[in-house]
Description:
Blueprint: H1 3-11, E1 14-30, E2 33-51, E3 54-60, H2 68-77, H3 100-103, H4 107-121, E4 131-145, E5 150-164, E6 173-178, H5 187-198, E7 203-204, E8 209-215, H6 221-231, H7 233-238, E9 258-260, E10 283-287, E11 290-291, H8 298-304, E12 312-313, E13 315-316, E14 319-320, E15 327-328, E16 333-335, H9 342-347, E17 351-359, E18 370-381, E19 384-389, E20 393-397, H10 398-401, E21 405-408, E22 413-414, E23 419-420, E24 423-431
Parallel strand pairs: 7-19, 8-17
Antiparallel strand pairs: 1-2, 1-4, 2-3, 4-5, 5-6, 8-24, 9-10, 9-16, 10-11, 12-15, 13-14, 17-18, 18-19, 18-20, 20-24, 21-24, 22-23
Amino acid sequence: MSDLIKNAKARVGQAELYVSRNRRLDVRYADSRLAAVTVDDLFSTALRVIDKGRLGAAFGVLPDDPGLVARAKAAAALGDPAGFSFSRSRRFAEVHPHDAETERLEAQNLIDLCEKVKKRIGPALPDVALSLRASATRENIEIETSGGTHAAHEGSCLSLEIHAPIRGGGSPVAKGKSSVSPFGVPLDLVDEFVEWHRWTETASTPKTGRHPVLFAPEASFLYLLPLCAGLDGEAVAKGTSPLARRLGEPILSPLLTVVDDPLVLDKPQSRAFDDEGVPCRRRSLVEKGVLKSLLLDLHSAAQLGQSSTGNGYKRRLFGSGPEIAPNPWPGQTLIEPGETPWRELLSSIDDGLLVTDGLGFHSANYPQGQFSVQALGYHVKRGRVAGRLERTMIAGNIYEDFQRVLAVSREQLEGGAAYAPYVLVDSIQVAGS
């Protein structure tokens, strides 16, 4: 047991220590030239205490800060009633998403990777000013509680992002991929980027009305984040979630199965425990369209008279960090793939959209399942891309529109919110020309 936890046990009722160290090596190219090499090494400490039944927290850099306990105790005097206890001694699954090869990378390795990508793209797009970002990250997390929990996590990841401006204006084309190799060019990522950039050479605006929409994995956040807001145990406990009292009922298309699986071994977000030191496990959130389980942290679980599902993370919809209190959040979301190649789904669209991103998501009432965004992506006519979307909005409600999923692709790729397939919905409301 650490000296800080011993000190806290002597002065308050319960304590939880969260220590995070993140190291990130970044190489950035702008206008196809090396622009910056940066190294960020961040050490953060968060201490939560429960004193006389009230919750308090204090934050610092190193865990040997002598004032942490006193500040947390003072905060607890004015804090809300806790209503729960911190994690007690547990056993954790063996999950080590750590790659020693990534840890040894230096700036020159990332520069070499970017140069290889430039060389691959250059002949196909000679006049494009590329922006590249190669990042090697290492994450260490330790959690200790007065109840005997001691959990340690070490993870690493190498990622590559490719951006390029669109001729004639508009948002840039972007492609990103995690867990790439520093010793070879990710050909699938690069070649797809070239193809998609060529699709932007002309602009096209669909007519206003309802059209089929193929959501790319990168756009999965448009329907997953409203779903996660509905699964949030805090919202369920308050009665504000549209999914309250709907366990066991169909809420999405039977073609959709959404799984939370932080234990999957080959993903960079794999974790054996959440940010409260509670063990993680694989769980179906939605199985063939039927709601199977909620996302609960220690606080929301206590409110509902249940146990934490291991989903207490220091993340929110628009931010994350050690200073954020744990919230119900998925550890690692996977949407089960289907059987049809995504290009066949694209070719089946007579007049519709391939959506790769959306702007303005925060303005919609997403906790109730609604989205309304400027659609980024491509206009599809007679099974072929007619051009990039321009002046196009899409809006809907996932609990209505995603009842009508026509197909999901056999490809399952890393998107912004999940490992997801392409999802084809029969019609979404579109505002265009």
